[in-house]
Specification:
This protein has 608 residues and is of the alpha+beta class. Helix content is 47%, strand content 14%.
């Protein structure tokens, strides 16, 4: 077996894609080279005789020569360069040692042979950012069976137990199910019957009324199932799942000693197995007051942390959190707005929540569409209470006051139409900002029909070239995310990924979608629709979603680390603390963002 050269990590990407025997062959062939500062290691347009991995030092890649030379990127310890020069027979860039540098040399013949033998290894070098992310996800996706095997029944979210007498009526049982927001009830045995307690479910009541023709006054005692199927609180969830599967039931009682402490349904078991997203939804559905909504919502950050650690796809995280946030907002809305008023208003979420791209709780961004002629004196107080309740749950107030507690963001339907027309008449920066906010609007509570006419009115503004130009200019206003020397631009040791990459991509796609009459709100959907319409080059359309996913994933990882350390999460990321692969993916993603900004500048004639 070949001895691994000290400092050469062949267990790191992309070498971890190789088979063990292939890694041994590469280790045996590796050599060391010393490049004094100022040495031109590889010349643009020329072949290379080895791929190099930096052990110590700094190498910079340049495009062009002499005074026209432009820095492309810098490479530090652990970074790999020269692969394209070996694969294509000529280098795209010139590489120069900026410091005394020591590199491992991976001979070209051995490297080329490995590319031929291992398709996944070859794909890493031949394909774009999307393939790199896919290969990384495959490598990092862990199995989840151990979580199911180790979690105890008592650690799951049990449904509360409520008890009725055997003589209680079907109508009383239905009312109890509804009042307590549960799916089953424990039924006491008739005195002297010698029977134990039984269980009656919502389905049992429905069957009694429909299939058996019983009336609402019939007692529930004869409907209860006996003997009870139960599991111990100290058993593992897997055993509970086996018991339910074996007995063809979807709910069992949970006992601790001789006492029943709750019930466990198939939904809760599978939800815990799938990182508890459905559990939070169940708790929200059962929440009878704001305190219970807040308690249910507290689990969302832990859920995100678990799924992120397991390598969940960014798009899945976004969709799942968006669904839960929607449930939170709708539940708070229902608790604070009288039922008779809810049909005369529509609650909208804006920004990342409107696009279904929210992950961690961030600023409130919401608005209200009211029915024409709406008149309710309690509206201002209810909306103040709504914003305050969301703040208590963990959604901070929007610094720009884009919230329903601000009258500017709650209008009758005709008022919204008048504002849209005003944006068309007075195209300026303020109009463009308000328009950008509303373009992502999504109804989440109340009467969605009130919002239905607005998207068409908004899309009509896509014919206004002046307004579009104001929108497009914002895509370029955040500056270049890469420095002149190819570094990720940082401030106070952090790189602002939202400013440097996420916002330009999201806002550029939003502006192009408006120009081309595309109704989608989600950035990934907008990108796909733009490619399908021929409004975005296919290669750029392939890499943009991947770049956005990389940026969001890296930001989320930093935000979770900040929360763990007791710091407030932000958009800034500690680039120096990233592993080598993530730094490479970050550079790739920011270059894609720059390429997209150049495309937007060309489309809207913003150069010069």
């Amino acid at each position: 077996m070949a001895t691994m050269p000290p400092g050469l990590d062949l267990d790191a990407p992309p070498f971890d894609l190789l088979e063990p025997a292939q890694r041994e062959r590469l280790a045996a062939a590796a050599d060391l080279a010393f490049h004094p500062a100022g040495t031109r290691i590889i010349h643009a347009g020329q072949p290379a005789d080895a791929v190099q991995v930096i052990l110590k030092g700094l190498v910079r890649a340049f495009d062009g020569e002499g005074e026209q030379a432009r820095l492309f990127a810098d490479y530090g310890p652990g970074d790999l360069f020269g692969a394209f020069a070996v694969i294509a027979g000529r280098a795209r860039h010139s590489y120069r040692a900026e410091q005394d540098t020591v590199c491992f040399l991976l001979p070209a013949p051995v490297f080329e042979q490995l590319l031929e033998e291992n398709g996944r290894f070859a794909a890493w070098f031949h394909q774009a950012l999307s393939v790199k992310r896919k290969l990384l996800a495959e490598r990092e996706q862990p199995g989840e069976l151990n979580r199911l095997m180790l979690t105890r029944v008592g650690d799951a979210q049990l449904a509360p137990l409520h008890v009725l007498a055997h003589e209680a009526s079907i109508a009383e049982a239905a009312a109890a199910l509804r009042a307590h927001r549960v799916d089953c009830l424990l039924v006491r045995a008739a005195p002297g019957s010698g029977e134990g307690p039984g269980i009656v479910t919502r389905t049992d009541l429905l069957d009694a009324l429909t299939a058996r023709g019983l009336d609402l006054g019939a007692p529930i005692g004869p409907l209860a199932s006996r003997p009870l199927l139960s599991v111990r609180a100290d058993e593992v969830l897997f055993q509970a799942l086996v018991s339910m599967t074996e007995h063809h039931v979807e709910r069992v009682l949970v006992r601790r000693g001789e006492d029943y402490v709750g019930s466990l349904g198939m939904a809760e078991v599978l939800a815990h197995y799938a990182s508890s997203s459905h559990l939070i939804s169940l708790r929200l559905a059962r929440a009878a007051n704001l305190a219970e909504v807040a308690e249910a919502a507290r689990g969302m950050t832990d859920l995100v942390r678990q799924l992120h650690a397991q390598g969940a796809k960014t798009s899945y995280l976004m969709e799942m959190v968006s669904a839960l946030n929607t449930r939170v907002l709708a539940r708070v809305f229902a608790l604070l707005v009288p039922p008779e008023q809810q049909s005369r208003m529509c609650l909208l979420v804006l920004g990342s929540e409107g696009r279904r791209e929210q992950i961690l709780k961030t600023d409130q961004d919401n608005a209200l569409v009211l029915a024409d002629g709406f008149d309710w004196d309690g509206l201002p107080a209810a909306m103040e209470a709504f914003s305050a309740a969301l703040a208590d749950i963990g959604y901070p107030p929007c610094p720009g006051k884009v919230m329903v507690s601000n009258p500017h963001w709650r209008l009758e339907l005709r008022g919204w139409h008048e504002r849209v027309q005003q944006w068309a008449r007075v195209a300026d920066g303020r109009s463009a900002l308000d328009l950008a906010i509303l373009l992502d609007a999504r109804p989440v509570a109340g009467n969605a029909d009130l919002f239905a006419p607005l998207p068409a009115a908004l899309l009509a503004l896509g014919r206004d070239e002046v307004l579009l130009r104001y929108l497009a200019e914002a895509t370029l206003a955040k500056g270049n995310p890469l420095t002149f020397f190819g570094h990720v631009r940082e401030r106070d040791g952090r790189a602002d990924l939202k400013r440097g990459g996420i916002f330009p991509i999201v806002h550029g796609l939003r502006t192009l979608a408006l120009k081309h009459g595309i109704r989608h709100r989600n950035s990934f959907d907008r990108c796909a629709a733009l490619v399908a319409a021929g409004a975005l080059p296919a290669a750029l359309g392939r890499d943009l979603p991947q770049a956005l996913a990389v940026l969001v994933r890296l930001r989320l990882g930093q935000q979770l680390a900040d929360l763990e350390a007791g710091r407030l999460p932000s958009n800034g990321i500690d680039v120096a603390g990233l592993r080598h692969l993530d730094r490479e993916l970050l550079r790739d993603a920011l270059r894609v963002a720059n390429e997209f900004k150049a495309h937007v500048a060309d489309v809207f004639h913003l150069r010069g």
